[in-house]
Amino acid sequence: MNRRTMTMASYSPVRTSAWRDSALLFARLALSSLFIVMGWGKLSDYSGAVAYMTQTSAPFPALAAIVAIIVELGLGLALALGVLVEPLAIVLALYTIVTAFIGHHFWTMSGMLRYDMMIHFYKNISVAGGLIALAAAGPGRYRLAGPHMPART
């Protein structure tokens, strides 16, 4: 196909490898930033994290805080680096949906708190959708790769 016969529908910058790989890198960094920032906050203020878990009625608040730190910080960093993106993105998506129900149960609230928690709940659902899309698309070329993780093209 030459430029004269190329239509707008047949040309998409997303179809180029460099653009796709750059977009996937941006997606990984943007999605992982939420987990890294929140995980670091819980690690640097563990007692506050436990208090928050207690406030949200999370089961076993001290253990829940440890799990949250490991998942958010550990898996968030792995996702940013492009390590095991497909399975970890799915795990983070499930984690994000579960935390939406535990921490943002807006249906039990009223007034502005209900509205605020509803925004957070649906933000979690949206982030989970982005993570599922990332799992389907893969990490792209810009990532760490080793012998056990062949680069996917």
Automatic annotation (TrEMBL):
The chain crosses the membrane at residues 21-40, 60-81, 88-107, 119-139. The keyword ATP-binding does not apply. Pfam families: DoxX. InterPro entries: DoxX, DoxX-like_oxidoreductase. GO terms for cellular component: plasma membrane. It is found in: Cell membrane. It comes from the Bacteria. The keyword Ribosomal protein does not apply. Keywords: Cell membrane, Membrane, Transmembrane, Transmembrane helix. It is a multi-pass membrane protein. Belongs to the DoxX family. This is DoxX family protein. It comes from Acetobacter garciniae.
